[in-house]
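HUMAN: Quick job: go over this next protein and say how the chain folds.
***
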Amino acid sequence: MYVPLNKGAFHMDPEELRRRVTSRSKMIILCNPNNPAGTVYTREELEAIAEVAIENDLVVLADEIYNEFIYDGRKHIAIASLDGMKERTIVVMSFSKTFAMTGWRLGYYIAPEELAERLSRVPIGARPATFIQKAGAAALTGSFEPVRRMCEEYDRRRRFFVKRLNEIEGISCHMFEGAFYAYPDIRELGIPSARFVEEFMRREKVLISDGSRFGPEVAKGHLRIPLVRPIDVLETVASRMEHFVKTLQRG
């Protein structure tokens, strides 16, 4: 069962979560920071979510993969750190984002002993090679200075690209709080996001993602653009998007 985020700011209404919990509910899946909207939940929001979990005896699966990429002085708060949550939370982490080890397919989870024992019975596919496991251990125990510098660079790209998108008539983009995805709203253009992506690729030779795939309600009419390329490339993307939008508006 999806719980839609608020339009624009993309934060969850805990009361909406409470309304959608049923007797069949077993788990809350929480992505914090959120992918693709970049939401970073406040302590008050997390406490409200934790209250729902405790009241209904629910496990929380916390995807905190982007916890090192948070901006504007915000702090990541692990929901497992809240009272009554350590024993009912599974934290999922990955090396792909924090350490840019995409393709190595390495990750881990943190869980209380009882839940970890159950998870150990679940088939998880291929086991990573020994050298990949050693690389992961080195990443976790080594200096996080490269991660800090990477976060600073993502922040530069975030400020540049969101501002640039908002200069394009018919497109609006909120300043996301965490992760590294721009999530612009194109509903004003009157074209389905899936068609926008297809036509943008065909005409301007730039591949981006249809943001509506990330949820059935507020995700409609959005694009998802990872800021993994340098600013000069992002400027090219923005310029081509601006040109493409003008051709749409001319009909």
Summary: Strands lie at 27-31, 59-63, 89-94, 107-110, 181-182, 209-210, 223-226. The helical segments are 14-20, 43-55, 95-98, 113-119, 130-141, 145-166, 193-204, 231-250. The first strand starts at residue 27 and ends at 31.
